[in-house]
Amino acid sequence: MTHNIISISGLSKTYPKGFEALRNIHLDIRQGELFALLGPNGAGKTTLINLICGIVRPTVGSVSVGGFDIITRYKQARAMIGLVPQELTTDAFETVWATVCYTRGLFGKRPDPAYLEKLLRDLSLWEKKDSQIVTLSGGMKRRVLIAKALSHQPHVLFLDEPTAGVDVALRRDMWQLVRDLRNAGVTIILTTHYIEEAEEMADRIGVIRKGELILVEDKVELMRKLGMKRLSLQLAEPMTAIPPSLAGYGLELSPDGNVLTYTYDSQSERGMIAALLDTLNRLGIAFHDLNTSQRSLEDIFVSLVHEDAAP
Questions:
Q1: Is 13 domain-assigned?
Q2: Which of 68, 97, 142, 155 maximizes the CB count within 10 A of its CB?
Q3: For all residues of the chain together, what is the average pLDDT?
Q4: Are 187 and 29 in contact (CB under 8 A)?
Q5: What is residue 114's predicted lDDT score, i.e. its pLDDT?
Q6: In whole angstroms, what is the distance from residue 110 CA to residue 193 CA?
């Protein structure tokens, strides 16, 4: 049975000038899951990661990682975490090999050249191991950040917008590495603007808006509940209004009267489509085309973050 590796309770962060970056966050993250944190710029994603990693102190609330409080037992908690930040901050004149060895040592881990060699090979960095980081391309520097984050074999890996502005080859390599890490039991927390990545990879999804966690849901359940299907019927003759006998279906009529749209839950309302088509036939309402579409995770995300938040 899986247990929670990260527990966050009543977490808020208010900066000295009064800006409330996070408000009353409660969240448990299970060991071995991939949790995607989605939200627009400025929503509080990076602040939340920095609080969990002990980089920023909370105003109120608590965070524990692997049972270690991030403030009172900082060293033990931080040793469980690997962090790949958004910014390319690297020790410019160090070689790739020196920097990953040094980072591993910072966490009190014994040297393990075989592990580090495998890590660099997995990230297509082995050929660059003796290169100074300053000489590398942006994509290669990003790979070095990932290698540094994984150098001490953390139990939890944070990826903060990891594929923003990187090339396709790195994205492919990185997602293969993420899959391998998850299969090995590493917990991964991901923030991303590439919603298709979350849709493909995540087990659960959290949506943060204006410093508040407005939704946490298993991805499959979220898609089921919010990813409703739509059936659009192109009418043979325009309508001026929906007949009363169709009122129970919750149909929408396009402004020009040419399209009827039925929104339904694909799991539970299959029989309703047949009933709807039968009713249309009995009423003599003909249509010459129909098509179905399903909301993507992106549609769901956009609708959630653009709802007017309560003041």
A1: no
A2: 142
A3: 85
A4: yes
A5: 96
A6: 37
CATH number at residue 276: 3.30.70.1560
> Rg (Cα) of the chain, in Å, rounded?
25
Angle between helix 96-106 and 113-122 (nearest 10)? 120
209: Cβ contacts below 8 Å, ≥ 6 apart: 39, 40, 43, 304, 305, 309
**Which has more pLDDT, 170 or 238?**
238
Contact between 1 and 28 under an 8 Å Cβ cutoff? The reply is no
- Claim to verify: residue 126 and residue 147 sit in the same structural domain: yes
Segment 95-127, tens digit of pLDDT: 999 999 999 999 989 999 999 999 999 888 999
- Do strands 156-160 and 187-191 pair parallel, antiparallel, or not at all (unpaired)? parallel
Q: What is the dihedral of CA 98, 91, 155, 111, to 10 degrees?
A: 20
Looking at the fold, whether 113 and 258 belong to one and the same domain comes out as no
Is pLDDT of 270 > 70? Answer: no
Higher pLDDT, 232 or 27: 27
Domain that holds residue 261: 228-294
Q: Are 66 and 59 in contact (CB under 8 A)?
A: no
The residues near 295 (Cβ < 8 Å, ≥ 6 apart) are: 226, 227, 228, 229, 230
Task: Convert the pLDDT of each residue in 159-200 to its tens digit.
Answer: 988 776 677 777 788 888 888 889 989 999 998 767 777 778
Contacts by 119-125 with C-beta closer than 8 Å and gap 24+? 119/147, 119/150, 119/151, 120/96, 120/147, 122/173, 122/176, 122/177, 122/180, 123/147, 123/173, 123/174, 123/177, 124/169, 124/173, 125/96
User: Phi/psi of residue 222, each to 5°?
Assistant: -60, -45
Per the CB < 8 A criterion, the answer to whether 287 and 280 are in contact is yes
Task: Answer yes or no: is pLDDT of 267 > 60.
Answer: no
Please, what sign has the CA dihedral across residues 233, 239, 244, 250? Answer: positive
Return the SS3 of 155. Answer: coil
- What the block records as the tokens of 30 is 């299970």
